């Protein structure tokens, strides 16, 4: 098990994070993401833990780019489960074992923290963040297909190394959309994701996120991922009942709206619509809405449930000339 820590403007906290690393962690990769505070130099000069490895990026790549670089380094050094934790000391490393356990037990390919499993866990979280995370969580359910998870922007995660290698081959967002975009790409692999309850922690850390600047881009990226996911999952890789429900549901709603608007545009002034006209407009819309709800129900039940990393490990062993374990 290896710890991956992206480092950008965390000079005041990074040494505390390293000092709290559990004894069962085999290695710690600290990624200096072109940090203006020279976090890498500080770690090399002050950190006494022999498990620490510093990776320097020549240009700032964002939390996603730094995390993927850390995944690559840890995997090359033999890491089997990679735990990502921020360098601002907001994440309690005592919970790292809870993230790793589902992967070691073969129950998940990726585990992430969820601060919304208990009201007591949210006592230290600002109200605006609670609301914002709730909205983002529903948007992420739609765009990623993981209806069983919440708190998608939580950066306290663990991933199996072979699954991480597959993810690194994809075009995952490098900036603040990283955690949610990673979930989308995990969904394309049919990887199993598990939520792990944990409390929120806030102290004197300064967030680099500006809410007003990310709302628009986040909405567009969620819409893009949703469209790509639906087309890929229900019309390219498979065609099933939900595919038919989507097609006929959208067609019915458009027909009803089109018929109603056409009648309103062409009716004589003061003319009252007959019951038949009203039903010709309303019934397709009602039917279409029901079909779309059925498609959503199918999607909810279609969340990946069989981990892929045992298969990947077996293939890896056979390619290395070893018998599968």
From TrEMBL:
SUPFAM superfamilies: Nucleotide-diphospho-sugar transferases. Keywords: Membrane, Transferase, Transmembrane, Transmembrane helix. InterPro entries: Glyco_trans_2-like, Glycosyltransferase_2, Nucleotide-diphossugar_trans. The keyword Cell cycle does not apply. GO terms for molecular function: transferase activity. The keyword Magnesium does not apply. The chain crosses the membrane at residues 246-265, 272-293. It comes from the Bacteria. Residues 4-161 form the Glycosyltransferase 2-like domain. PANTHER family: SLR5056 PROTEIN, UNDECAPRENYL-PHOSPHATE 4-DEOXY-4-FORMAMIDO-L-ARABINOSE TRANSFERASE-RELATED. This is Glycosyl transferase, group 2 family protein.
């Amino acid at each position: 098990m290896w710890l991956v820590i992206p480092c950008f403007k965390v000079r005041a906290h990074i040494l505390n994070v390293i000092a709290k690393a559990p004894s069962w962690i085999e290695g710690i990769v600290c990624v200096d993401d072109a940090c203006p505070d020279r976090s890498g130099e500080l770690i090399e000069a002050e950190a006494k833990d022999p498990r620490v490895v510093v990776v320097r990026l020549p240009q700032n790549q964002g939390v996603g780019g730094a995390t993927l670089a850390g995944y690559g380094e840890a995997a090359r050094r033999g890491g089997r489960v990679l735990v990502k934790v921020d360098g601002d000391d907001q994440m309690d490393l005592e919970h790292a074992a809870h993230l790793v356990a589902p992967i070691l037990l073969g129950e998940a390919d990726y585990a992430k923290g969820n601060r919304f499993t208990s009201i007591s866990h949210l006592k230290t979280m600002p109200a605006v963040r609670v609301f914002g995370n709730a909205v983002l969580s529903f948007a992420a359910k739609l765009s990623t297909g993981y209806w069983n998870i919440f708190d998608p922007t939580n950066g306290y995660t663990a991933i199996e190394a072979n699954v991480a290698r597959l993810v690194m081959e994809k075009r995952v967002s490098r900036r603040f959309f990283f955690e949610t975009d990673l979930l989308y790409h995990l969904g394309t692999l049919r990887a199993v994701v598990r939520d792990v309850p944990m409390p929120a922690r806030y102290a004197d850390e300064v967030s680099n996120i500006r809410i007003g600047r990310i709302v628009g881009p986040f909405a567009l990226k969620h819409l893009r991922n949703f469209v790509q996911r639906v087309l890929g999952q229900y019309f390219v890789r498979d065609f099933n009942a939900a595919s038919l429900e989507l097609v006929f549901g959208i067609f019915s709603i458009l027909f009803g709206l089109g018929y109603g608007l056409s009648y309103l545009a062409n009716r004589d002034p003061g003319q009252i619509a007959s019951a038949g006209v009203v039903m010709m407009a309303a019934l397709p819309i009602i039917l279409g809405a029901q079909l779309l709800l059925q498609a959503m129900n199918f999607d909810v039940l279609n969340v990946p449930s069989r981990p892929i990393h045992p298969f990947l490990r077996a293939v890896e062993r056979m390619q290395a000339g070893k018998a599968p374990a």
